Amino acid sequence: MKLKNALYLVLVFAVGAIGAFSGVAIGTLALNLKVNSQPVQVTAEPTAVPIDLPTPSPETQVIQVSSTEIQTAVTQAAERVGPAVVTISGVVPGASSWLFPISDQEVSGSGVIVSDQGYILTNNHVVESMTEMTVTLSDGSELPGQVINTDQFADLAVVKVEGSMPAVATLGNSDVLKPGETVLAIGSPLGSFKNTVTVGVISATGRSLDTGEGYTMEDMIQTDASINPGNSGGPLVNLAGEVVGINTLIVRSTGNTVAEGLGFAIPSNLANIIGEQIIEKGYFSRPYLGIRLQTISPQIAYRYQLPVQYGVYVLEVSSGSPAEKAGIQVNDIITCIGDSCINENQSYYNILFTNKPGDTVAIKLVRNESEKTINVTLGESTGN
Question: Active-site residue numbers?
Answer without folding.
Answer: 125, 155, 232
